[in-house]
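Ticket #4471: structure export looks truncated?
Reporter: QA, pipeline team
Priority: medium

Steps to reproduce: submit the single chain below to the structure queue and open the exported record.
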Amino acid sequence: MNNAPTQNPESHEPVISPPWLRGLTRRRVLGGAAAVGGMAVLSACGTKGQKAQGGQTQAADKSDTEKIVNWSNWPEYIDVDDKTQKHPSLELFTKETGIKCNYTEDVNDNDQFFAKIQPLLAGGQDTGRDTFCVTDWMASRLIRLGWVQEIDQANIPNLKNLDPTLRDVQFDPGRKYSIPWQSGFTGIGYNPKSTGGKKIETIDQLLTDPSLKGKVTLLTEMRDTVGLVMVDMGIDPANFTDDDFDAAIAKIQKSVDAGQIASFTGNDYGKGLSSGDIAACMAWTGDVVQLQADNPNLGYTLPEKGHMAWSDNFQIPNMAQHKKNAELLINFYYDPKPAAMAEDYVNYISPVVGAKEVLLKEDPEVADNPLIFPSDAVRAKSHVFRALSQEEETAYNAKFQALIGA
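Actual output as written to the record:
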């Protein structure tokens, strides 16, 4: 690996050099069906279960007799051996535990994945998965619906290595139903060629700078777009009212009406940002760094007022057949060495304390990368969008969809 980004200690702006990520980023949506890499497609088994404490539905755990665990994850979100296309960390897991992991890359989008599992979980059936990784807000929804099981932390002694900033989140106090796999930031990407060499360092610039008019894109992810605007307005995304939400929507609407905003996108902003058709945009850290492969001049800013942070989380669905094995899998990846194996390939923010020290010996350029192992000062400026009630989620989504014209 080469040319890792450096950090400007005064502005907290990562100055990104040419490419150092491998493969696709976590949020890069692949067209068509998920690439399962030859892994077995998991079938949905309509097995009967029993009511567990708290009204959750558990199946009889087969972990002691069936040494397997079925894990669904996002594409290109684990270490891969370029020659064999196998996953070295998963091979080590099997060697150490005797448990085989059926690893499937079929989480291409939170809502699409929810659509796959919703009918089964609503009907009290097994999804065919013992664990999967979804983003905070989806994890929150599944907890609210009662469709995921409480995790037995006694089977995860390595959870002591969870980063303290992630141990107690609003949507899951005490991490009873979710445990982070990877995290990331949302900030601003910009093309100096289209900004006249100007750095874009604030959300207010995105929304009001006349030199950017018609060349700005925001994200179709409500929590990222509204959250960043709230932070810029001095509103805490973790503690806001309906009026605060409406004020942020109104500010964005004003920019839309003025022609400042060209469009709202998923991560398909990449092509336009690279070409200069998009001067600046809300962007995910990994995406912009990936784009450096073709255009090392692209800039990225984590705004001084703060930025949004997110995690993708392990959860164990109701009726999982190998719950204990799933917990042992999570425990394995909370050992710093396996965590470092995955991190060295994935290059997102590791939730495991100690992974950096392993990489300082094995790949110091990754270990010293402030977007993978951010400083305490950068972490302190991170914000997480608060958990929503069902009524709030419905109302806020309706307002946001009307705003973006969806």
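Status: closed, not a bug. The export was complete when the record was re-opened. Leaving a note from the reviewer for reference: The chain is about 35% helix and 15% strand.
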